Amino acid sequence: MKTPDFSTAPPFSREGPTETPSGQSISEPSVVISGTGHYLPHKVLTNTDLTKIVDTNEEWILTRTGISERRIAEPTETSGTMATEAARMAIANANLQAEDIDLVIVATITPDQPFPATACYVQTTLGMRTIAAFDVEAACSGFLYILDIAHAMVRNGPYRHALIIGTEKLSAITDWQDRSTCILFGDGAGAAVLSRSSFSGKKTGILDTTLGADGANGHILQMPGGGCRIPATPDSITSRQHFLKMNGREVFKLAVKVMEKASLDILARNHLQADEIHSIIPHQANIRIIEMLSSRLEIPMERFFINLDQYGNTSAASIPIALHEARESGFCPSGAYSILVGFGAGLTWGATLIRWP
Ligand SMILES: CC(C)(COP(=O)(O)OP(=O)(O)OC[C@H]1O[C@@H](n2cnc3c(N)ncnc32)[C@H](O)[C@@H]1OP(=O)(O)O)[C@@H](O)C(=O)NCCC(=O)NCCS
């Protein structure tokens, strides 16, 4: 049997070869963000409100985190209901109908219930076809994880339009007696529709994603109870095991490190310099983390999209909420490069490079 000759094959690319060995260009699909949406609960919890709940003050919260206020869901609002509203907006924004969607993926650490998946709730509530629907848990990096999964599924077919949603009701797992964490988090949902399209000339859409995880640092940000290791018992409830626990200083240090690495990796493997990036849409955890990232990447703060002052950290919802507001405010002009970058419990992290059509 003749051995295949790979010597003239184009170099490996996650996007596949763009030309044949003889130099002819190959028409290949690209995956674009065709629509975005978000939902924020109406109830606002300000730093002043928090001084009535825990021993803190407005100045401390604002200077240490950059957060002024956050949104808190009503008892009737859940991750599922908020996801549904964000999804409705994203589908309309993409000029599509619910029945056009071929796949739904939800990222959340606060699903409506352990199972069935919140994605299945969204699918039926919006009246979609009986398409694939599932949840992914990668904490605050969750949206970047589902974006990469959906990108691969849409690019390789048969899915044409994927709906991806980050949604969180973090107020349900926040320990309102712990002043070091309860000041940080908020509720909300953000969604995007990824669609397959052909391209000619310069490639646009989602160009590349890098993801990572380091389970050895899982203990620095976690909710110990509620899984099969510590199921709900009177003891687990009394000892507050069903709330989020965090070593803030450790998370801070690692967040800066992994977001810098993810950003530099995605720049290097796409042969781009930092000054070619028009905008960065980071996970909205703490303004000081973003300022350190800005200084390390030598990308000025004006190019970072910031809304954490209004919403706090909404975990998996943070990047898609910011993405929607960034697109709406002209932060993502045609032809420009943007990077989405985030980190979260796990420890997990990721970065996605986009060129806007
Ligand atoms: C949580 C965070 C704001 C704390 O800021 P910090 O500068 O690291 O503060 P420290 O934890 O060192 O605490 C400093 C002091 O403030 C106190 N403090 C903590 N929370 C406070 C609050 N809400 N109000 C007033 N004082 C507070 C501490 O008790 C400590 O007092 P001490 O020096 O007397 O012991 C910061 O570590 C952080 O943002 N970390 C990353 C968290 C994150 O992004 N998590 C989500 C990941 S997706």
Protein traits:
357 residues, alpha/beta, Peroxisomal Thiolase, Chain A, domain 1, 4-stranded mixed β-sheet, 13 strands, binds coenzyme A
What does this structure look like?
The strands form four sheets. Strands 1-7-6-4-5 form a five-stranded mixed beta sheet, with helices on both faces. A four-stranded mixed beta sheet has the order 8-13-12-11, with helices on both faces. Strands 2-3 form a two-stranded antiparallel ribbon. The N and C termini lie far apart (46 Å). Helix 3 packs across helix 4. The protein has two domains: 30-198, 3-Layer(aba) Sandwich (Peroxisomal Thiolase, Chain A, domain 1); 205-355, Thiolase/Chalcone synthase (Peroxisomal Thiolase, Chain A, domain 1, 3-Layer(aba) Sandwich), CATH 3.40.47. Residues 1-26 have low confidence and may be disordered. It has helices at 47-51, 58-65, 79-93, 118-125, 142-156, 179-182, 234-238, 248-269, 287-297, 308-311, 318-328, and strands at 29-39, 44-46, 69-71, 103-107, 132-136, 161-169, 187-198, 205-213, 221-222, 245-246, 277-282, 337-344, 348-355. The relative contact order is 0.18. The chain has eleven helices and 13 strands. With 357 residues, the protein is α/β, with parallel strands linked by helices. A hairpin with a 3-residue loop joins strand 12 (337-344) and strand 13. Coenzyme A binds next to helix 2, helix 6 and helix 8.
Written as H for each helix and E for each strand, in order along the chain, the element string is EEHHEHEHEHEHEEEHEHEHHHEE
CA-CA gap between termini: 46 Å
* Major sheet characteristics: 5 strands, mixed
The number of domains:
2
Quantity of strands, as a count: 13
Mean pLDDT level: 93
Radius of gyration: 21 Å
